[in-house]
Amino acid sequence: MSEIEQGRSKEELGGVTLLGNQGTQYPTTYAPEVLESFVNKHPGRDYRVKFNCPEFTSLCPMTGQPDFATIYIAYIPDELMVESKSLKLYLFSFRNHGDFHEDCMNIILNDLVALMQPKFIEVWGKFTPRGGISIDPYCNWGRPGTKYEQMAEYRMMNLDLYPEKIDNR
């Protein structure tokens, strides 16, 4: 089936090259360049897209031990959206990357903001315990000067008012 038959013109698909590519190479080091975007067909409507990534791994920068997490990425798109296979490869690129949990979540947020310029985005890591303690870093971003900036502030201030059930540990 061609791209146009699938409901997307070549212009809308832009630089999407990984989807459907059977020869995909998995990156072995941090690789933000693998992220790809496509045109949002509904930019005038606010809606939320959420990715649940239960197999995230990175390395502790001090010990080199692996850290495991479920990563939640939710955003309100504007003109562009992240292509899911490229996101999967991008998250995989952290496998041999040594950074603290908090740094990884902020790097992911920054890279996705740079790629898409969404209206709002949040990234939440729920790491499995190591040494008897788990770390759940949360970061978000709302477009400055808009209601989405206020939404980000509100979300940050009220994040733990209604604690979620943690089911990945």
UniProtKB/TrEMBL annotation:
Catalytic residues per the record? C60 (thioimide intermediate), D67 (proton donor)
Query: Keyword set for this entry?
Result: Cytoplasm, NADP, Oxidoreductase, Queuosine biosynthesis
E.C. number = 1.7.1.13
What compartments host this protein?
Cytoplasm
Q: What are the binding positions for substrate in this chain? A: V82, E83, S84, H101, E102
Catalytic activity field = 7-aminomethyl-7-carbaguanine + 2 NADP(+) = 7-cyano-7-carbaguanine + 2 NADPH + 3 H(+)
GO cellular component, alphabetical, reads: cytoplasm
Q: Which InterPro entries match?
A: GTP-CH-I_C/QueF (IPR043133), NADPH_dep_7-cyano-7-deazaG_red (IPR050084), QueF (IPR029500), QueF_type1 (IPR016856)
The record's PANTHER family line, in alphabetical order, gives:
NADPH-DEPENDENT 7-CYANO-7-DEAZAGUANINE REDUCTASE
**What protein family is recorded?**
Belongs to the GTP cyclohydrolase I family. QueF type 1 subfamily.
Known role: Catalyzes the NADPH-dependent reduction of 7-cyano-7-deazaguanine (preQ0) to 7-aminomethyl-7-deazaguanine (preQ1).
Q: What is this protein called?
A: NADPH-dependent 7-cyano-7-deazaguanine reductase
* Taxonomic lineage of the native organism: Bacteria, Bacillati, Bacillota, Bacilli, Bacillales
